[in-house]
Amino acid sequence: MGFGFSKDKRITESFEISKLFREGECFSCYGARLFLRSNGLEFNRVVFTLSRKYGTAVERNRSKRLSRECYRLIQNDLNQGFDFSLLVYPGNDTFLHRKNQIESLFSKAGILIKN
Question: Percentage helix, strand, coil, to 5, in the chain?
Fold first, then answer.
């Protein structure tokens, strides 16, 4: 499995995102939440969402880029067959902080494979 982040590994349909929020398990840490649901596929799919009134478009885009990159680096260390939604709140938008948030959330969810 490579380090790419192809479009088939993203959740794009609004009904799938709604179903994930409605039926998925929720795990929280300061500044972020992870919604998790089994998808029955051999790979994981993910969507990155931001809370309402996050800031300017530049801040929202930067936050999503940080989140995608942190997920891309950790995706090979996760159990497969899940849909994820990462909900991010405004705050400390640094790479190290976001990486720690994401690792903490996946660890709480019990799907992070320890190396």
Answer: 45, 25, 35
Contact 91, 31 (CB under 8 A): yes
Give the pTM. Answer: 0.86
Q: Strands of 9-81 (E only): list them.
A: 25-29, 32-38, 45-50
Determine the residue type at 33.
Answer: R
CB 78 within 8 A of CB 39: no
**For each of the chain's 115 residues, which pLDDT tens digit applies?**
455 667 888 888 899 989 999 999 999 999 899 999 998 889 999 999 988 788 888 888 899 999 999 999 998 899 999 999 999 988 888 899 999 999 999 999 999 887 5
3-class DSSP state of 41:
coil
β pairing state of 82-88 and 45-50: parallel
